[in-house]
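Hypothesis: this fold can be encoded by more than one sequence.
Test: take the structure tokens below, design a sequence, compare later.
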């Protein structure tokens, strides 16, 4: 059974939530970018930000890898948020892309950029595990 679009009022509420989420995500991405700039060698060749002990260098590398992973994760989240906003504007927001039924409101409150209902997302996750 295909679902019809949400009311204009509900779509506006979700749009506002998505815009707040996007703003928070963009701030986090900017902060992580600044941290990466501060952690790297400056253009004058100052090596004071680099560790000299082998164990410290390993820790520095691990921290940079974590930051890169988090930056990538936030970038993917930003893409999902933008796609969700597009669905709001097209009035197809809140409808599962697999089965066509409504995505549960509790799920959308937690993950406003969700593309699938809980049941379809579970099936997708099981397929990925195989």
């Amino acid at each position: 059974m295909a679902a019809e679009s949400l009311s204009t009022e509900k779509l506006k509420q979700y749009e506002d939530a998505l815009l707040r989420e996007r703003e928070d995500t963009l701030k986090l991405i900017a902060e992580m970018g600044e941290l990466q700039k501060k952690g790297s060698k400056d253009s004058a060749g100052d090596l004071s930000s680099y560790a000299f002990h082998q164990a410290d260098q390993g820790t520095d590398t691990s921290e940079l890898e974590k930051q890169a992973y988090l930056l990538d994760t936030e970038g993917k989240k930003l893409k999902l948020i933008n796609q969700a906003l597009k669905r709001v504007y097209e009035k197809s927001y809140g409808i599962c892309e697999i089965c066509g039924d409504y995505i549960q409101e509790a799920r959308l409150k937690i993950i406003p950029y969700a593309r699938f209902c809980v049941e379809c997302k579970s099936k997708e996750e099981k397929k990925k595990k195989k």
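The chain has one domain: 8-40+53-129. The chain is about 65% helix and 0% strand.
Hypothesis status: open.
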